[in-house]
Amino acid sequence: MEIQTALRQFCDYSTFIRGFSPATISRYKSAIRLFASDVGIDTMEQVTEGAFRDFMLRGRTVRHWTANSYVTYHKSFAVFFRWCITEGYMEENPADGMEMPKTDRKLPPKLTRQEATRILETASNMPYPYKFLRWRNHAIFATFLYAGLRKQEVLSLMLTDMDLQNRTIFIRRGKGAKDRIVPMCGSLMESLERYLVERKRLKKTCPEFFTSLNRNVGFTDTGMKRLVEKMNAASGIKFSAHKLRHSFATMMLEGGCDIYSLSRMMGHSDIKTTTIYLAATAEHLRDQIGKHPMDELAGRKKPGSHNAL
User: Fold this and answer.
1) Does 37 share its domain with 172?
2) What digits encode the pLDDT tens for the residues 230-272?
3) Residue 157 covered by a domain
4) Do 176 and 242 reside in the same domain of the chain?
5) What are phi and psi of 277, to 5 degrees?
6) By the 8 A CB rule, do 108 and 280 touch?
């Protein structure tokens, strides 16, 4: 069996049966193609444990993969090889039994509240040739910051997914092919309503919620990348779409949201994934501890100022 044929079948299965996202499929394709090219093999029969382990080692020594990148590549290969075994293309999984390097659990990058506010203000105050662009762009960034959606989830939103009457967003087949419902706050509602007025005025009829200006089609991934780059330059703040999602999570925790509710809104399959944001709010919590009523009372006296008994 040719590797490229197996890869195509695996990607079709993962897309239409498992419901993997386009980003995940792209990661699998790039990893398997890199392996085949680097080792110089064309068929699944040529895949050996030694060749695979040498390739992974070169990833660390030659390509300078970080420990996190190494683990991510390994997971991609393990899943692909496991599928190949199920299909009868391989007998053993060469990724099994490999020791993994210790990974750094870095805190997710986030914006301050002032930076998040400046992004929204920039989105609505920039000079635009059309009012539609002003309110569409503001609504996109408001959706990231007030609902914590992933980039692909924002791009995949359908008009029917937005229930303004009940203040909910239906996320269909998010990461892991899981549906979920995310509530809307008042500020997001206002932004979306302004955008919908312009969307209706331009007679957009495509099913996608966020649309292109000049065509009656959904907003694209390329368009999103350009928009984020433009907003980086205009606001003077360096950020990515995923950084906006991280910022939503930390701000929700700082505002008092419980970890379980946040995990459901973020669409995490394991609450352990959400707990990383707890560490990101440590500085905020240190500020909050000063509000302890007993600490405030004790603060009226200086240490060592107690009268001797």
Assistant:
1) no
2) 999 999 999 999 999 999 999 999 888 999 999 999 998 888 8
3) yes
4) yes
5) -70, -20
6) yes
